Amino acid sequence: MHILRKAVALSLIAGLGLAGAVAQAAADPIATRQAIMSSVGAAAGLGGGMMKGEIAYTPAAGKAAITTMRAASLSYGNFFPAGSDHASSDAADAVWNDAEGFAAQLAKFAVAAAAAAEASGKSGPADIDAFKAVFGPVLGTCKSCHETYRKQN
After folding, report:
1. Is the sign of the CA dihedral 3, 9, 12, 14 positive or negative?
2. How far apart are CA 65 and CA 41, in angstroms?
3. Which residues form the signal peptide (predicted)?
4. ∠ at Cα 114 (53, 111), nearest 5°?
5. What are the binding residues?
6. Which of 19, 34, 52, 134: CA 20 to 30 A from 83?
7. Domain CATH number, residue 67
8. Which H helix or E strand runs over 105?
9. How does pLDDT run across 29-88, given as a tens digit for each residue?
10. Range of 55's domain?
11. Binding-site residue set for heme c
């Protein structure tokens, strides 16, 4: 139970970090997109841990992971202005060289995250199977985007 509380707290803190990052966006879009992706990573870690059975599932934890992904999907693509392609980040050149493809991947992320948020209702998916059904597609969009638009380490 301690691990679950810690995971939910980390996800919520990451979500609050996302809100703070957006407030600083005009000053530093690169730091903002990195902060948003950090919150996405925390939500993916929480959601993936629940899906694997490493973290006990609760509807509140499921809702926190989904809500973080939804918030990121609404803003993330706004923080790749021209000239930010030479920054120290994990964004691959393909983000700028294939802007239409990147926008299409972001649209898939937004659709999947919106569907997950809608299906999760006010309290979150009722059980782990319902969570997997809505969160799995969100993680799938992350994976497909990272294959092309994230630098491979």
Report:
1. negative
2. 10
3. 1-25
4. 105
5. 142, 145-146
6. 19
7. 1.20.120.10
8. helix 99-120
9. 999 999 999 999 999 999 999 999 999 999 999 999 999 999 999 999 999 998 888 778
10. 2-149
11. 142, 145-146
